[in-house]
Amino acid sequence: MAFLGSAVQRMVSAVRIPLSPLCRTTTHRSYSSEPTKEKSVPYEKTLKQDGSVSGPTKPLPRSADVVVIGGGSLGCQTIYHLAKMGMTNVVLLERDRLTAGTTWHTAGLLWQLRPSDVEVELLAHTRNVISKDLEEETGLHTGWIQNGGLFIASNKQRLDEYKRLMSLGKVYGIESYVLSPAETKDLYPLMNVDDLYGTLYVPKDGTMDPAGTCTTLTRAASARGATVIENCPVTGIQVRTDDLGVKKVKAVETPHGTIETPCVVNCAGVWASKLGEMAGVKVPLIAMHHAYVVTERIEGIQNMPNVRDHDASVYLRLQGDALSVGGYEQNPIFWDEVSDKFAFSLFDLDWDVFMQHIEGAVNRVPGLEQTGIKSTVCGPESFTADHKPLMGEAPEVRGFFLGCGFNSAGMMLGGGCGRELAHWIIHGRPEKDMYGYDIRRFHNSLTDNQRWIRERSHESYAKNYSVVFPFDEPLASRNMRKDPFHQVLTEQGCVFQERHGWERPGWFNKEAPAPVKDYDYYGAYDIKKNENYKYNELLGKEYTFDFPPHHDVGTRFLTGNKNYGRHNITTVMTAQPIKSECLSCRNGVAVFDMSYFGKFYLTGPDAKKAADWLFTADVNKKPGDAYYLAIGGGVAEHNWNHIRTVLQDQGFRCQLTDHSEDMGMISIQGPKSVPFVLHSKSKPGHLYLFPYLTL
């Protein structure tokens, strides 16, 4: 038996998986292609090693309104909510057994408070489904345990964050309390509170059982007419191209037959990217090892709340009379070669990677130092570039929906997201504001860029337990998209912000330039950590809930003449705090570099009809005229796909073209402004003047 405090240090560590080469790929938008060739797959039986016949647990229907692929938390929640909303001709396909892959080994924690009102609502629905609705519908207990949750604050900023969470919780009626160290000790006698500023206690947090939850969900769905089929892997997705060049889901292929369907829901977890490839859909997630250990029995731990020590990046989950200990490290192991045979398997735990969690756990509960380790659990999980799920209809194929990439939070978010996904499928949109989860939040040039996916997913994983500050910026995968003014602004000390892959001017450092450097993975994987990194130093000073330092630093505008193509642009130097800058814009004139905006052309015989349908403003022009659309950079991809969908559904004879990468954009604003100027970097001899619509 190993002990947490000493013996684990002597264990032999597993070999780390090396990083793949980091590379940037280029993508182009396309409206049509040849239809996908359909395959004819004969019905087959498969044999187990012992010679017995193995196949689908139920006969496959010839057709279905919706086929959900993946029998984990999201798949089961989605088919349950589809059936509950009245769709009965729906099928769930699981290649092995329910919970196979990632769900079966999840910790199953549910915390009700998150720094987002939408996520608080999603979590509340999950809790209602697991703790109340399912038991009322089926008479079965899902395995829900309400033992409470405790967030640890080891510094003032963390405690301030918890106070904000408590205030948000009050709006939604979530019971929570900020406790002093002494009160925390009374609640959790085994805890070391010497280094605490306080804690946030939520009595109605708890723990879910993956197997019990998924089994009960599918029984409830089946009772409403849904079909759940296990032991049925998917081998292909048939896609057809209609007369207008629009790609749509046609059917799902399996070794045991084909199901015709107009709608597929990808809930395949770690394997979602492979499933997406079958339909020509990009699914930007990456697989990593994610682990926890289960201790031997601990006297006095019974009925204690689950603990999240964010500053130590560790959690302690009550497991009967023992604890599960896990967390998020800065050097997670990537699973580059995802295996299709990994149903209920586990990896060997790399103790060199995991030891940092042991140290944090022992500091918080000192009694763990002499507690034995009963078992280790190291399985695959899928992670995304911003640590948020991938949901909604894929831009590439109509009828192909995503419900994957849940960053080890698929159980706690499953109920809320399953309901929203079902509503999305039935009504064409979710009930709640799900933009933060919508796959269309990512620009199409990034969703198959392996460098961006890997770097940003790593940074989001490593910072998962970090305080969420309003002025934080990523360090990973920067300088992916730059406008014509990037270099000259950098030379003048511009501190850039990242939006949708673009480097957007934020504010100016008057001391010296602060360029963004290549990502160093925080020094992990034997990559040399960036030294004398001015941008990172300035970013660290921005970590506050108050006015950031740059509020009083001031900004600067460029001086002298700069040659852009055949045009000299003369600018004036000013150095003034942001307050003065805002007043200058309100009362005079100011110049904004808005090149990160989306810049689209809407043309064709029905351009006016389309514009009248799309926009609330009066955009009356002569029939056939073109429209220029300037769209906020952060929502440009979402708007692109929305407009394209409207053109397809309404049958407008139009063409939508994207010139976001071809042109920069300068906006002159204020009561003394003139029409703004667009400068084309691909055609340096031209200056463009356009009226514009901001969406």
Automatic annotation (TrEMBL):
<dbReference type="Pfam" id="PF16350">
    <property type="entry name" value="FAO_M"/>
</dbReference>
<dbReference type="InterPro" id="IPR032503">
    <property type="entry name" value="FAO_M"/>
</dbReference>
<dbReference type="GO" id="GO:0005759">
    <property type="term" value="C:mitochondrial matrix"/>
</dbReference>
<dbReference type="Pfam" id="PF01571">
    <property type="entry name" value="GCV_T"/>
</dbReference>
<dbReference type="InterPro" id="IPR036188">
    <property type="entry name" value="FAD/NAD-bd_sf"/>
</dbReference>
<feature type="domain" description="FAD dependent oxidoreductase">
    <location>
        <begin position="65"/>
        <end position="424"/>
    </location>
</feature>
<feature type="domain" description="FAD dependent oxidoreductase central">
    <location>
        <begin position="427"/>
        <end position="481"/>
    </location>
</feature>
<feature type="region of interest" description="Disordered">
    <location>
        <begin position="26"/>
        <end position="59"/>
    </location>
</feature>
<dbReference type="Pfam" id="PF01266">
    <property type="entry name" value="DAO"/>
</dbReference>
<dbReference type="GO" id="GO:1901053">
    <property type="term" value="P:sarcosine catabolic process"/>
</dbReference>
<dbReference type="GO" id="GO:0008480">
    <property type="term" value="F:sarcosine dehydrogenase activity"/>
</dbReference>
<dbReference type="InterPro" id="IPR006076">
    <property type="entry name" value="FAD-dep_OxRdtase"/>
</dbReference>
<feature type="domain" description="GCVT N-terminal">
    <location>
        <begin position="485"/>
        <end position="628"/>
    </location>
</feature>
<dbReference type="InterPro" id="IPR006222">
    <property type="entry name" value="GCVT_N"/>
</dbReference>
<protein>
    <submittedName>
        <fullName>Sarcosine dehydrogenase, mitochondrial</fullName>
    </submittedName>
</protein>
<feature type="compositionally biased region" description="Basic and acidic residues">
    <location>
        <begin position="35"/>
        <end position="48"/>
    </location>
</feature>
<dbReference type="InterPro" id="IPR027266">
    <property type="entry name" value="TrmE/GcvT-like"/>
</dbReference>
